[in-house]
Amino acid sequence: MKLKGNVHKYGANVDTDVIIPARYLNVSKTEEMAKHCMEDIDRDFVNSVRAGDIIVADDNFGCGSSREHAPIAIKGSGISCVIARSFARIFFRNALNIGLPILECEEAVDNTNKNDMLEVELSTGEIKNLASGRVFKAKPFPPFMLELISTGGLIEYTRKRVRKS
Asked: How far apart are CA 116 and CA 6, in angstroms?
């Protein structure tokens, strides 16, 4: 599964309160949540994000509360993948549950700038910075996780598996 997009770069400890501010937690529609994604850390994000774009961040991305609204808002905004030095555990799990690919790769974080174009191959973990030509390696997703991501998350994956049986 190959992804390609423009980079939106953030620092360390980007918490769920800035990914989707608490004042929007009563919103249930993904499209509405996406309109407020990252607004407390990057007012221009919703105007500049395009389908397929990629977030690159430092340590502890998604820390804070356990709300699954955060990865839903990110995915709903059009972000195809998040690459960070590390993720908060609950964000990591919530992201995979909804089918948002996330990769940990220190070298990619250290050698990627805002607005660089990245190409990511989830099956191999290869991250190519098209601006610099450098290639980085993250841990690839196993086949069952690629299927979970491509079907839209854990619920859709489970429904698909139940239909097959």
From this structure: 6
Q: Which residues make Cβ contacts (< 8 Å) with residue 154, sequence separation at least 6?
A: 96, 97, 98, 99, 148
Torsion, Cα 77 81 86 92, to 10 degrees, reads 70
- The residues near 98 (Cβ < 8 Å, ≥ 6 apart) are 68, 71, 72, 75, 152, 153, 154
Alpha-carbon gap, residue 120 to 67, rounded angstroms? 27
Nearest to 54 by CA among 9, 85, 21: 9
Q: Is 16 helix (H, G, I), strand (E, B) or coil?
A: helix
Q: If we measure between CA atoms, which residue out of 23, 102, 30 comes closest to residue 60? A: 102
14-72 pLDDT per residue, tens: 999 999 998 988 888 999 999 999 999 999 999 999 999 999 999 999 999 877 899 99
3-state secondary structure of 73: helix
Backbone angles phi, psi at 87, to 5 degrees: -125, 150
The one-letter amino acid code at 36 reads H
